[in-house]
Amino acid sequence: STDEPALMFGRLGRSRSDSGIIRCDKSFMLLLAEFEGRLEREGLKWMGVREISNTVHAFGVMGVTSKLLFDSVEKDAERIMSDGNPQDISNIAYAFAKLGEKRSVFFGAVNTERTSEMIGRMGKPQDISIILWSMATLGHDAATFSKIINRVDVAEKLVRNGTPQNIANTIWAMATLRLEANTLAKIIDRVDVAEKIVRHGTPQNIANTFWALATLRHDSEVLAGVIDREEVAKKFMEEGNKMNRSSAFWAMNRQGHKTKFWR
After folding, report:
1. What is the b/e burial string over 127-140, where b = at least 16 CB atoms within 10 angstroms of the residue's CB?
2. pLDDT tens digits for range 137-178
3. What is the DSSP string of 30-78?
4. Residues 200, 179, 220, CA angle at the centre, nearest 5°?
5. What secondary structure does DSSP assign to 150-184, as a single string?
6. What's the Cα-to-Cα distance from 241 to each of 11, 149, 238, 247, rounded to whole Å?
7. What does the alpha-carbon distance between residue 181 and residue 190 come to, in Å, rounded to a whole number?
């Protein structure tokens, strides 16, 4: 059946994460050879977009590459964008980013007005953040996609329904790619959002968000004030690492904030 490869590779991805072990597994190699043989003969026309998405995602989780599969995905990029949903696209984007697969054709198809609008309208915060994070990680142009994310309705959805990690990954990606993010930055530097990030986020989430706002030269007075609390500084010392503390302290200094508890 069309979903059989996705199910089988998915089970392997959930049970094993060491690509070296998987590559030595005879059953996996037989499955891969049979799958790639069919791809050579038929391409991806026998698979639905959800099955393609789940299969590629499983390869990303396993840490295993397949040039034939990934080339076929790029050949079918337009079908994936038109027939797929934001989660399908984010699954593939995540796998490519984790595997270091540049795949410019696929990401170029993401960064179009039609696809960007669809993702912004229909996508969950996790989908949006993963796609943009993947584009930034691989160094892709995301100017069109980021304009949608920087729109008030999409930015509000992100901070309202998203987790601190979703927020952090999105603004980190926009800062990394030096994209216009003034609307999103202002919304993040709001009391309710800043409190949510600090209360529920990890030190890495908090530090990445603060670093991104400072990198974008947005004076995040509210977030800085929320971070400069004794309990937050203690959280960084107990749960964070040196990089988290360094990033947050750098952001404080870059924006000229005088701190009470960060020494």
Report:
1. bbbbbbbbbbbbeb
2. 999 999 999 999 999 999 999 999 999 999 999 999 999 999
3. HHHHHHHHHHHHHTTTTS-HHHHHHHHHHHHHHT---HHHHHHHHHTHH
4. 45
5. TSHHHHHHHHHHS-HHHHHHHHHHHHHTT---HHH
6. 33, 30, 8, 10
7. 15
